[in-house]
Amino acid sequence: MIQPVNNIKHSINFCAEPERKEQNSKKYNHDTLLGNNPLTNMRIGMDKVTNAFTLYPAKGLKGSKNANFYEFLTMGTVPYLIGSATLMALFNYANKYYSPFDKVQASKVGQKMALGVLFYGIAKSLSKKLISVPVNMLTGVDTDRPYAKVIYELPDNVNDTDITSIEYHKVFESVEFPRWDLLYGDQSKGEKRNFRYDKIAKKLNMGENLNDSDQETKPRIKEIIVKSNLAKNISCYFWAASGVALAFQKPWEDYFKVMTFKFWKPEEFGKSLKAFGKSFIDSAKALYKGEGKGISKHAGKILLGSSLLVSALGVINTVAGVKKQPKSNSDIIKKDEKHVVS
Amino acid sequence: MTSNLIQNYITTKPTSAMNRQPIKKQEAPKKPMPDFDIQKELDNRTFIKPLTGKGRLINGNIFNAPLLFAQDIVYDAKALKHAVSGKANDHELGKLNDLGLLLGGLGIAGYLFTKKQTPVTKGMEFIGLASFLGAMAIWPKIAIQLPAYLIHGVNVQKQYEDSFGRRKPFYQDPQFLPWDLYTDKEIDKMGDRMGVPKNIPNRREFIQEKMKKIAVQNNTLWMLTAGFATPIMSGLICNLTEPYLSKYFDKKNNKSADKIINNINEYSKKYEYTSVEKELEKILGNNLNKKLTPELEEQITSVISKYINPITAKNIEKDLKEKVFGEPVYKIQDDSIKEVIGNLNTVFKKRIPGADEEFLKTVIPDENSIINALKNSELYDKDLSKTQFSSIRQVILDLVSKNVIEYNKTHPDKSKDLKLARTLVMSNMTKNKDSNPVNIILQKVKSNVLNKDAVEKLKNVVKILDSFNAQKFTLDEYALKKVGAAPETVIANYWNDVASDLVKILGFTDKEIARTRIDRTLMSDLLREKLDNIAADKSSYEKVISKLVNKISEINNKINTQDMSVEILNGNSKQSTYDNTVDKIFNDTADKLRKAGFENTAKAIAGADANDSLGTLKNIQKMYVKDRLLGVKSSFYRIINTLDLYRRIATGANNIPYLNGRYIEVQEELIELCKNITLKGHSSDYAIKFYMLRNANPDRTVGSIKIENGKVVYQYFGKATQTVDIPSDSNFYKDAMKIMYSGEMHPDTIAALKEYSIKPEVINYRNKMLEIMGKEQYFAKPFHMLGDQTLNTPSNIKFLTTGIAPDELLFKSCQPIYNSKKWIKIFGGFGAALLGVTILAQFLFGKMKTPETTGKKK
Predict the structure, then answer these.
(1) Alpha carbon distance A194, A214 (integer Å)
(2) How far apart, in Å, are the Cα atoms of A12 and each of A7, A28, B344, B438?
(3) pLDDT tens, A207-262?
(4) DSSP conformation letters of A28-55
(5) Helix or strand run (H / E) with residue B56
(6) B857 touching chain A per CB within 8 A
(7) Reported pTM
(8) Would you state the pLDDT for residue B806?
(9) Cβ contact (<8 Å) for B111 and A79?
(10) Across the interface, do A62 and B115 touch by the CB < 8 Å criterion?
């Protein structure tokens, strides 16, 4: 019988010196389904960002034999964040060397550009919720459900006893290899084995108390993953563009006049926050109303409308197909009833 | 490795089905093929075979790049189709992220495009997007792939196509590398390139490990550097591209402007607003033969004047009143008399103390009495002019007066003030002259109608004005494209181009630019020094003046003097095409309007006759172009003249006739004044006839001034302890003006100007400065004048002819140059350092302990 390798549970020591038994301090000893909540997501995000800037580059630059695709992908955060900061610097850093008039003019554009970079990132990230939340509500499929994956690496040297590492993935990040196994209930804890699939089946109008809800729902879940991923991948960039457009509105200039990040000066910081809120609302209105005539007047409306439309179509495309009752004979048979095949 | 899920599941978690039903021991079924041995079959490979792999390495190069690009597009389109139907795979979904990135980028560029006003700024939004995406793709090629290949002989960005036709980076996942796609020969070749000994055990595995290590290290380096490199590269690409884009749009803009002036009638069709004609026709159709109320008149006037400037519109209004709407005619009838009675009731009740119902009934005449009285006076139901309103009032007044007198007789205790009643009938209630209780009703009984004749007149006029507007807007467009006071017009581009080239031509170093951009005074001193140095040396002068003349003369290529010219500079020769076109359009329109009876409008557009050029729309149309051209040309011709003056002083100060015979100190003062005024004088300096602090008691030595190595060495100037302006020395002023602007230019300057069309304009510029500024009278220095007659030139012409002072022009030019250089220095420097570090780091990559050799060469 092949057993899973687990050096924590079974106290397996890979060290060449058998007497050394250092306990592994990793949080997980097997692949573990995690809750999709802000706290967990923040913790995962912090972990990934920290590793992306420290551990993974160190491993990568050494050419570690354990470097893998996950680490490479996670390191994608590095150019994303550094690139954002560099873009901000590109439009602002040199301004201090300019003559006072030029400085004022350059800063007006530079500050909007920096705000645009910030809004791009925020809008891109948050807008994915516009797909995942309604899809979850309507189908029961949580496309963002995270899990911790335990990786067993090759020891770097004879004294390397800590050969595990934790990666954070999403259950449905691969449409070809979703982690179905993690969605089964733990019967030892009194959970029904298929309770998650049952819930999805019910939401998808496939019936209740199905004998094999997991097998019935899997093809539909795959379809949901593909379609929702498409919707997220496209709509998030539309919203990101809307974020940039919002940042380029004139009312922000009022905020820039009182902008401060000195939170230790509560009065000034409070004013700055208040001005931010006001400028945000005024800018949103300005983006919607537009100015000038023709396409210039309506460009903001078009951009916002397109973003909303793409998100709405994305959700509709994801949900509509999978909630439809199938037409084929095999699917017309009610799954929750007993049938005799002659 | 992760746990084997299936095994784990089977051993630890029985299925629900198994839980529900007791496990029955079943008999083993009989084997259908008792002699079948799966191992044997597999060994013989007669039973099952893996499919032959179809994966291949992709050898990308510039020749197959378009094909690969096209294949990518097809693949993306298919991926989108699959994803929409929910059938895409991971690889396809990954590609769609790139599609989203591109769409989002286009969204940003598209939105910002609409916010920008000029072609270059609009175009730069898309170039910004393209450069960013380009930089994302180029950086790993030039900073990672190429150096790694040159240093190690390994292409770390190699791509392969898997058996399903999916194109992927070879080293994407270091844990799953499809090494089988490389032949032994290829691996060996790369091993040789990396210096791997030939006689080591498992050489291929070692080479693969080394390649993998290099790839992992390079991929990491890519991730660490791309964040800095992509935006910086994108910024630098934009910086490099903008001048080319600007030149492209400048040429395009200029060509399109040239097409306009040669096809004005054709081009003006796009401005023919038939909407005005239609709108007017609708109004006229609805109101034909109806009363011409003030509201209708206002409506018609406003439609006709829709695209007309306010001054001309006033004249149109006047003409409409006089020639179309006609003198107002009023007709009083039953209804209006009832209203007059009602009004009188209200006013009397309000204004006459103690006016009760009885009083009102007695005093205010009834309808029949008024009608009869008006009939007797022949005022009832007749066309009346406004001047006859007083007669109507008089009739009513007579009736009221008679009634009041009667009332006072019968009611002595309640007698009322007759004078007050008369006043109320005759005079106005407020300052508004039409607020009289009778007049206010009479106003409404205007009986003019919009007859067929008026309609025809209106239709004719609106056609003339429509056509005129269309042609005028076309002229405006042409003028704007060429000389408009806006960014990216031909003249604005020319100005920026010359201004920035001047800094190069005069040899400003980066340090000098950095220093002088802060303070104009610093620029003045430095420029003075530079001009002195240039003027002192023949070869450097010839070099600079020829470059300067060559650059400045581009104006006449961009804006041909035959198309647009300014008389002050081209010597009142033939009118330009633009001026002729303006004359023709405006004069023709005026003629047509005169024929239609619109004399006032015709006069406002083109003057009393074709030669009238004062205060007309035609004159404004021409003057805008002339003013813009004069300001720009004078500013640059002034630089030529300034440099010429410096050269004349450097090479022959003692031959300048206006210096001869004076004390040396005064000669030096004159030279100093001329050099300063040409370099930094404003039109106000000319207006006050130059304020200069001089030595009131100069040294009386007469002789030649000292010139060493082409530079004037002051022997006396600047040494006096007490200096004052001397307003009585008008000759000093006159001579200064003559030194600066009269006489022949230096032969070197003439030689440089010889080939260029700007030569006569430069000479005219000098003459006009002498004439316009010299013949101006200043009350505080009345004798500081050239000639006897005062020439009162408008102040805008004096200002524009003087042009910008060279030191001010360069001071302003240095600021954007400095900003641009500083930006490039910071980010270009950072980018270059980053590239250097990225390349150098790769020399440290791929270090591995080589296994001991076997002694045998493979």
Answers:
(1) 6
(2) 4, 16, 116, 116
(3) 888 889 999 999 999 999 999 999 999 999 999 999 999 999 999 999 999 999 99
(4) -SS-EE---SHHHHHHHHHHHHHHHHTH
(5) strand B56-58
(6) no
(7) 0.80
(8) 97
(9) no
(10) no
Q: What does the pLDDT read at residue B436?
A: 77
- Condensed to tens digits (0 to 9), the pLDDT of residues B749-774 reads 999 998 788 999 999 999 999 999 99
Contacts of A314 in chain B (CB under 8 A): none
The confidence score (pLDDT) of residue B858 equals 44
Provide the CA B309 distance to its chain's centre, in angstroms.
Answer: 23
The full DSSP string for B501-559 is HHHHHTT--HHHHHHHTS-HHHHHHHHHHHHHHHHH-HHHHHHHHHHHHHHHTHHHHHS
The encoded tokens of residue B394 equal 């008089």
- Runs of H (alpha helix) within A93-212: 100-127, 129-139, 195-203
Average pLDDT (B785-801) is 90
Secondary structure class of B565 (helix, strand, coil): coil
Q: Residue B212, class by beta-carbon neighbours within 10 Å (0-12 exposed, 13-18 middle, 19+ buried)?
A: buried
Interface membership of A195 toward B (CB under 8 Å)? no
How many CB atoms are closer than 10 A to CB A117?
Answer: 22
Determine contact, residues B195/B846, Cβ cutoff 8 Å: no
Phi and psi angles of residue B162, each rounded to the nearest 5 degrees, phi first:
-80, 180
Q: Which of A30, A61, A81 faces B217 most closely, judged by CB atoms?
A: A61
Q: What is the pLDDT of residues B687-701, one digit of tens each?
A: 999 999 999 999 999
Contacts of residue B306, defined as CB under 8 A and 6 or more positions apart, other chains included, come to: B273, B276
CA distance linking residue B188 with residue B182, whole number of Å: 10
Side chain identity, residue B346: T
- CA dihedral for B689, B692, B696, B701, sign (positive or negative): negative
Report the 3 state secondary structure along B351-393.
Answer: HCCCCCHHHHHHHCCCHHHHHHHHHHCCCCCCCECHHHHHHHH
- H/E element holding B669? helix B664-680
Name the residue type at position B456.
E
Minimal Cα–Cα distance from A98 to chain B, Å? 6
